[in-house]
């Protein structure tokens, strides 16, 4: 199954893996991320994994960085990067959202990374389905 919005394409792959390809030059705003959330709500109602295919150059607004991928049913997240810049941006995002305790890995698209990312996500989803200690991300409470 495929979903297309004005700024992004989603491919729903087997095992409820959502491949996300944001358009070249897009700047994702908070409103856009809400549109994504509504569009993918039926898919994200069950346990799922995300594969961010960072083949294009795009930007995320500051607010979007804190709002995206906040669903409780997220099992695992993979970033496939093709440039040093996109690798660094993905690492910054993961660091920014460290409190969310994402199950995340990065893969180089120039070194068969898409397939490796897909295989890893499949294995994580299978582990979850077989009750092998993977649980969807749970919101973290910060206390001082």
Structure overview:
This protein has 144 residues and is α/β, with parallel strands linked by helices. The protein has helices at 30-44, 62-67, 84-96, 113-129, and strands at residues 2-5, 8-13, 17-22, 27-28, 48-54, 59-60, 74-81, 104-108. The protein is built from four helices and eight strands. Strands 1-2-3-5-7-8 form a six-stranded mixed β-sheet, with helices on both faces. A two-stranded parallel ribbon has the order 4-6. 28% of the residues are buried.
**End-to-end distance, in Å?**
44 Å
Percentage of β-strand residues: 25-35%
Helix content: 25-40%
Number of alpha- plus pi-helical segments: 4
**Order of helix and strand elements from N to C terminus:** EEEEHEEHEHEH
Shape: globular
* Overall pLDDT level: 88
What composes the largest sheet? 6 strands, mixed
Instruction: Work out the number of β strands.
Output: 8
- Indicate the low-confidence ranges by residue numbers: 137-144
Query: In what order do the strands lie side by side in the largest sheet?
Result: 1-2-3-5-7-8
Please state the CA-atom Rg, rounded to the nearest Å: 14 Å
Find the structural class using helix and strand composition.
Answer: alpha/beta
């Amino acid at each position: 199954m495929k979903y297309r919005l004005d700024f992004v394409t989603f491919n729903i792959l087997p095992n409820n893996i959502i491949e996300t390809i944001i358009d070249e030059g897009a700047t994702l705003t908070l409103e856009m991320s809400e549109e994504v959330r509504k569009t993918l709500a039926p898919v994200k109602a069950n346990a799922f994994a995300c594969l961010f295919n960072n083949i294009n150059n795009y930007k995320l607004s500051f607010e979007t960085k804190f709002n995206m991928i906040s669903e409780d049913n997220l099992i695992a997240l993979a970033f496939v990067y093709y440039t040093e810049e996109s690798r660094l941006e993905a690492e910054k995002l993961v660091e920014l959202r460290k409190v969310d305790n994402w199950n995340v890995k990065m893969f180089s698209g120039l070194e068969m990374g898409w397939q490796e990312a897909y295989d890893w996500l499949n294995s994580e989803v299978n582990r979850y389905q077989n009750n092998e200690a993977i649980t969807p991300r749970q919101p973290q409470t910060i206390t001082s």
